[in-house]
């Protein structure tokens, strides 16, 4: 049970990449190329580029990201880039155990939310997550132009959906993002793939 001064959590806020959906740039790149060398080049120009973070922040457009990647690849890989851009989201597999937990929590009466550093095309990836129809709301960095771990993005989620931060558990695979949530007044759980430990933490704080 939580300490007497604590409020029990009523909402669980999930990150998307590597919490609800797998995100692996080198793997995605390998699916659309024929050699390890070409896969490495494609990943460096796209997912591994500093501009990918700018895309997720809403600072640049998809068109700018595409132009940059094309400029950093040999012309023979431009068709591979186009295929990757068009189809990598559908190759992002749901993490079934985390989705199952989120759906069960929703059935038990918890609020279930998404807070993700992702670009404005997020639904191409999130749209085939089993939990997506059960979400009570979401905030996405590329739409809001605020990124985790800035406390402002967690505060925005709480204000938009009228949530008390003290009643929220935030789940992310990045400890810095968890710390941002704590600064904003939330509980936080650093997810490393252990869904049983995550569920135990939810129960402990409830």
Task: Give the overall shape, derived from the CA principal axes.
Answer: elongated
Ends: how far apart?
7 Å
Tell me the radius of gyration. Answer: 18 Å
Order of helices and strands: EHHHHHHEHEHHEHEH
Q: What composes the largest sheet?
A: 5 strands, parallel
- Strand coverage percent: 5-15%
Mean pLDDT: 95
Number of strands: 5
Major sheet strand order: 3-2-1-4-5
Structural class: alpha/beta
Unreliably modeled segments:
1-5
- Helix count from the secondary structure assignment: 11
Fraction of residues in helix: 40-55%
Notes on the protein architecture:
The chain has eleven helices and five strands, in the order E-H-H-H-H-H-H-E-H-E-H-H-E-H-E-H. Strands 3-2-1-4-5 form a five-stranded parallel sheet, with helices on both faces. By secondary structure, it is an alpha/beta fold. The N terminus is likely disordered. Helix content is 46%, strand content 11%.
């Amino acid at each position: 049970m939580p300490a007497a001064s604590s409020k029990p959590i009523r909402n669980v806020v999930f990150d998307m990449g590597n919490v609800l959906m797998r995100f692996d740039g080198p793997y995605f790149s390998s699916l659309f190329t024929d050699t390890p060398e070409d896969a490495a080049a494609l990943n460096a120009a796209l997912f591994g580029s500093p501009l990918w973070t700018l895309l997720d922040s809403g600072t640049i457009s998809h068109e700018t990201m595409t132009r940059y990647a094309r400029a950093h690849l040999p012309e023979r890989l431009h068709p591979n880039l186009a295929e990757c851009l068009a189809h990598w989201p559908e190759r992002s597999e749901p993490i079934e155990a985390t989705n199952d937990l989120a759906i069960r929590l929703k059935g038990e009466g918890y609020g279930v939310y998404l807070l993700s550093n992702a670009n404005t095309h997020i639904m191409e990836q999130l749209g085939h997550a089993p939990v997506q129809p059960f979400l009570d709301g979401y905030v996405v960095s590329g739409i809001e132009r605020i990124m985790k771990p800035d406390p402002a993005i967690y505060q925005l989620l709480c204000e938009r959906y009228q949530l008390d931060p003290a009643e929220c558990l935030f789940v992310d695979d990045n400890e810095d993002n968890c710390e941002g949530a704590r600064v904003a007044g939330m509980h936080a759980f650093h997810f490393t793939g252990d869904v049983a430990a995550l569920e135990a933490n939810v129960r402990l704080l409830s």
